[in-house]
Amino acid sequence: MTYYVIYRNDERVEGPAGLFVMEVGAGKAILWDHRSGAWAFDPALVMRFVNDYRNFDRFETVDRATAERVAETVSGGAPLPDEDGIRAMFESGANATGERSSGQQ
Q1: Model pLDDT for residues 22-34, shown as the tens digit of each residue
Q2: What count of other Cβ atoms lies within 10 Å of the Cβ of residue 29?
Q3: Secondary structure string (H, E, C) spanning the chain
Q4: Which of 19, 84, 85, 98 has its CA 20 to 30 A from that of 64?
Q5: What separation in angstroms does the CA of 105 have from each of 44, 68, 79, 101?
Q6: Radius of gyration of the chain from Cα atoms?
Q7: Average pLDDT per run of 10 along the chain, which is 105 residues long?
Q8: Which of 15-27 are b and which e, b meaning 16 or more Cβ less than 10 Å from the residue's Cβ?
Q9: Closest CA to 105 of 93, 91, 88
């Protein structure tokens, strides 16, 4: 699994704004969804963001321990799911509440 810390702009002065977790080879990803207040399965959004050259300075790859600290910050206290939980979300294509992503068909 690859963990990405997301920033609002390339200057990174305001601290992390989001977090993505991706299984790169499989094209699966989750992110903290600020609107729903939950971890959400949305590989299409994550892929668009990380593959857009305009965003290359707005994210960085981090280790799991760093991702756990950032998760608590960007989510307002909700922990990053453990790796088994993340894999389950990848397999089911659902967010942390069990709902399917709006991007899924």
Answers
A1: 998 888 999 999 9
A2: 26
A3: CEEEEEECCCCCCCCEEEEEEEEHHHCEEEEEECCCCEEEECHHHHHHHHHCHHHCCCEEEECHHHHHHHHHHHHCCCCCCCHHHHHHHHHHCECCCCCECCCCC
A4: 98
A5: 12, 30, 28, 9
A6: 13
A7: 93 89 92 93 94 95 97 94 94 64 46
A8: ebbbbbbbeeeee
A9: 93
Is residue 1 classed exposed, middle or buried when 0-12, 13-18 and 19+ CB atoms within 10 A define those classes?
middle
Model-level pTM?
0.84
Q: Which of 10, 9, 33 is nearest to 21 (CA)?
A: 33
